[in-house]
Amino acid sequence: MEPIWDTICQRIHMDSKTRDLGLYIHIPFCQKRCHFCAFYLTSHREDRIQDFLSALAQEISLYSRRETCHRFPISTIYFGGGTPTSLESVQLASILSLIHQHFTVDSAAEITVEADPETVSRSSLQTLYEAGVTRLSLGVQSLEKSEWQRLGRLGQMETVCRAMTDVKDSGITNVSLDVMYGLPGQTLETWQCSLERVLELFPTHLSCYALTIEEGTKFHRDVREGKLESRDVELEAAMHEQAVTCLGSAGYHQYEVSNFAKAGWECQHNLRYWSGLDYLGLGPSAQSYVCGMRFGNISDLSLYSHSLQTQDLPIDFLDELSVKDVARERVIFGLRMNKGVPIHALTTFENDQPWQSTVDRLIEDGLLSVDHQYLKVTSLGRRFIDTVALQLS
Ligand code: SF4
């Protein structure tokens, strides 16, 4: 993979901007795969965990030996997966310690760990807090028992409440909850109930995602075999509107299509993705975006480990984006945020008549608007964000 790394270094050297970096660490373990989940992961096994931890340490060390990496102070760290908390909290703390040893981490960095309520305790959370974790993202999905079970998830509703109490006792004050709508059997009434229950837990941040049925998942097979109905787009739109209204009146502002926060508690790491800022992904299947280059790691734990044992970065592919591709992505991702994209970010398209016509048409159709020098999606456009993105791509 060294030729790939050489290409990345050349591009970094050509780039004169000073940049900070987000670090994403993919922990590829879960106790059980949920029926809708298409992420790369493998089942939790002690020997695999030891292999993964050694390989990840090697990956951190290999990057840190690249002089170019020291140009980037780390502003955000995000442990995702998989279920990061399927590792022992001391193992997560030791990964963080390695990162601090090998990179320059901003003292005010946001450090998030995704967690399954089933896999945290007061003492494990305390360990994470003492290791520097500032934010926890708890995967709740639904607070209706029947919906939860249909997703193939483990656990009980009481577990979520207990986990919330433990998080607050641990000292971590920034807590996000993930909930889903468009679930099998879900109605507007049960969705409202889930929203009201999560609000009773007083999180700082909420992510509300529509269920997507992706290839390779149990739900995808169930739809194909007629055991599960496919998406009801109208019902999903109504549920999304319901979330905007309910969470808005509880003081959570929508800052991205699926994300809501109390003022000042927006997720800084995810804002990087939508703002076109750089991030480096570590771990199997992790994706990176640095200086207009998109690259991704091998989605296979054995191959990932093997590559690192031979001192090779486990990069599977690299896409070098043109200036226009970078600008296009910035618009498409930026439109996911409520604040939109500054008009000056569109100068690359000044002479691109077809692209300008598409924007004009989306404005005429009421899907986009220009407001205070920002191009934004309207509330109607938010319902059709994927269509808007497709038209602009
Ligand atoms: S817990 Fe999360 S990562 Fe693990 S299988 Fe379920 S949805 Fe996927």
Describe the protein's topology.
Blueprint: H1 2-14, E1 21-27, E2 29-30, E3 42-43, H2 46-65, E4 74-81, H3 89-102, E5 105-115, H4 122-130, E6 135-141, H5 145-150, H6 157-170, E7 174-181, H7 188-200, E8 205-210, H8 218-224, H9 233-249, E9 253-256, E10 259-261, H10 268-275, E11 279-282, E12 287-290, E13 293-297, H11 301-309, E14 315-320, H12 323-334, E15 341-342, H13 353-364, E16 368-371, E17 374-377, H14 379-383, H15 385-392
Parallel strand pairs: 1-4, 1-11, 2-3, 4-5, 5-6, 6-7, 7-8
Antiparallel strand pairs: 8-10, 9-10, 12-13, 13-14, 15-17, 16-17
Helix pairs in contact: 2-3, 2-11, 3-4, 4-6, 7-9
Bound molecules: iron/sulfur cluster.
Give the number of domains.
Answer: 2
**Looking at the structure, what is the overall shape?**
globular
Examine the secondary-structure arrangement and name the CATH architecture of the largest domain: Alpha-Beta Barrel
Strand portion: 15-25%
Into which percent range does the helicity of residues fall?
Answer: 40-55%
CATH level-four homologous superfamily name of the largest domain: Aldolase class I
Radius of gyration: 21 Å
Average pLDDT, all residues:
90
Tell me which ligands are bound. iron/sulfur cluster
Instruction: Please give the count of helices.
Output: 15
Strand order of the largest sheet: 9-10-8-7-6-5-4-1-11
Largest sheet: 9 strands, mixed
- Secondary structure class reads alpha/beta
Number of DSSP strands?
A: 17
**Under CATH, the topology of the largest domain is which?**
TIM Barrel
Low-confidence spans: none
Note the gap between the termini.
Answer: 30 Å
> Would you state the CATH class of the largest domain?
Alpha Beta
